[in-house]
Structure formats: C-alpha cells, structure tokens
C-alpha cells in the first residue's frame, strides 16, 4: 500500500514537473512574440515618421521649385522687356546723334541767315514810313548785340529775330495816334500823327488848321487841302478811342 502511494506521489510530482515545464515553455514564445510585435510597431512608427518628414520636405521642395519656376518666368519676361527698352534707347541715341549732327549743320547755316535777316530788317525800316523809327532801329541794334552774346543759344537768337519781324508785321494792321514834331522849312511844328497801318501816315497841327501826308517817294511831308482836315481829325479821335470807328477819306502814300 505504501509502495503504491509513493508511486502515485512520484507520478504526481513528475506530472507537476512536466506541467510546470510545459507552462514555462509556452510562456516564453508568447513573450517573444509580444516583444517582436512591439518592436515592429515602433519600427513602423519610426518609418512612418520618416516618411512623413520626407513627404513634408518633398512638398516644401515642390513649392520652392514652383516658386523658382515662376520667378524664372517673371525674370525672363522682365529681361525681354529690358532688352526691348535697351534696343529702343539705343535707337533713340542713334537718332539723337544724327539730329545733333544735323543741328550743327543747321547752326552753321542759320547764323549767317540771321545776320542777313537783321540787315534786311534795318534796310526795310529805313525805307519804310518813318513812324517810331528810332525805337525800331534800336530794336535792330539790340539784335546785333544779341548775336555776339555767347550765353544766349542759337535757337533763342533766332526766336528774337523772328519776333522782331512779327512786330514789324503787326504795324501794318493797327490804327494809331501819337504826338510829335515835323520839320517844315527849317522849323519844327508840333502835330498829332495819325497812322493806318502803312497805307496812310498823316499829321495835323494842334490848332486843326493844317494837315500833311507823308510822301514816301519824296521822303517829305506834303501839305493837304482843307477837305482832309475833318477826316484826319476823325481818324485821330478814333485811334484814341474818342470816336467810334467809321469810314474816312484819306490820302494814301505807303512804303515802296
């Protein structure tokens, strides 16, 4: 009986040992599997993080690339624009250089022309009806002084010469009345002058009893008949805004 009991105890001990051994054997592989699974998950997370970082860097690089491409296109358009501007400026410079050469040639031709114009203007004034003669000849003299002034441009000199011609032209279109003196038989007589452009230049004594007309052919004053005294009086009054303009009968002697 005791032998059986021992055998049973031994068997039970063996079974327990086997069961314990089996339990340890089963537990270790599961633990290893869990460890491997955890490491795999961590490795996957690291890989995903790397992928995410690479993706973000790729997106940033793509954006930088697109920006660079856009800037390159903008710069290309701008450079083409600058190239056209430079070409236009070069053409403008070439045109200006050509014009400068032409201006130099024009200056050489214009300066002698202006001197001839001034001389002609002086000759015309001396041959013209003798009104404001001193003032008009003084203008000519100032033009000659202007021509030798190095601080005045050629264009300004030419402008003033033309202006003098325009002033002389305007004398032909006005009606004026002034007071002065004429010399008759060696004595000066104070008179009122009346002028209609260059076609009639008359004088009348202050007492309204005598009248004269300038004869530009003989360069002297010719006495007029009494029939002209009233018309000349009206002319002088009209020129002085003392009478409305009207038709008057006047003797005509103009510059030749």
- Total of helices: 4
Model regions low in confidence, pLDDT < 50 over at least 5 residues: 1-26
Number of strands: 5
- The gyration radius over C-alpha positions equals 59 Å
Main sheet summary: 5 strands, antiparallel
Q: What percent strand?
A: 5-15%
Give the fraction of residues assigned to helices: 55-70%
N-to-C CA distance? 182 Å
Gross morphology: rod-shaped
The whole-number mean of residue pLDDT values reads 83
**Helix vs. strand class:** alpha+beta
Q: Give the strand line-up of the largest sheet.
A: 1-2-3-4-5
Q: What string, H for helix and E for strand, traces the elements in order? A: HHHEEEEEH
Describe this structure in words.
The protein has 256 residues and is of the alpha+beta class. It has helices spanning 2-127, 133-147, 154-170, 229-239, and strands at residues 175-184, 187-196, 200-205, 211-215, 220-223. A 5-stranded antiparallel β-sheet has the order 1-2-3-4-5, with helices on one face. A hairpin with a 4-residue loop joins strand 4 and strand 5 (220-223). The longest helix is centred in the first third of the chain and has 126 residues, at 2-127. It is rod-shaped and about 160 Å long.
Overview in brief:
It comes from Pseudoalteromonas spongiae. By secondary structure, the protein is an alpha+beta fold. It has helices spanning 2-127, 133-147, 154-170, 229-239, and strands spanning 175-184, 187-196, 200-205, 211-215, 220-223.
């Amino acid at each position: 009986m005791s032998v059986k009991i021992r055998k049973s105890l031994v068997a039970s001990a063996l079974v327990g040992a086997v069961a314990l051994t089996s339990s340890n054997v089963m537990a270790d592989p599961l633990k290893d599997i869990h460890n491997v699974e955890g490491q795999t998950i961590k490795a996957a997370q690291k890989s995903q993080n790397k992928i995410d970082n690479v993706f973000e860097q790729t997106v940033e690089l793509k954006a930088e690339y697109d920006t660079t491409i856009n800037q390159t296109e903008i710069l290309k358009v701008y450079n083409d624009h600058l190239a056209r501007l430079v070409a236009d400026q070069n053409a403008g410079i070439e045109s200006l250089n050509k014009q400068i050469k032409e201006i130099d040639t024009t200056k050489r031709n214009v300066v002698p022309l202006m001197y001839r114009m001034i001389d002609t203007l002086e000759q015309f004034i001396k041959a013209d009806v003798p009104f404001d003669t001193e003032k008009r000849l003084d203008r000519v003299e100032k033009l000659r002084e202007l021509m030798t002034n190095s601080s005045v441009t050629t264009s300004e000199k030419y402008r003033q010469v033309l202006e003098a011609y325009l002033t002389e032209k305007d004398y032909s279109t006005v009606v004026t009345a002034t007071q002065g003196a004429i010399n008759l038989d060696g004595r000066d007589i104070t008179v009122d002058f009346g002028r209609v452009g260059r076609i009639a230049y008359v004088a009348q004594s202050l007492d309204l009893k005598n009248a004269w007309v300038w004869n530009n052919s003989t360069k002297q004053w010719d006495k007029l008949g009494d029939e002209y005294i009233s018309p000349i009086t009206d002319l002088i009054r009209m020129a002085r805004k003392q009478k409305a303009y009207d038709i008057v009968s006047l003797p005509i002697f103009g510059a030749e």
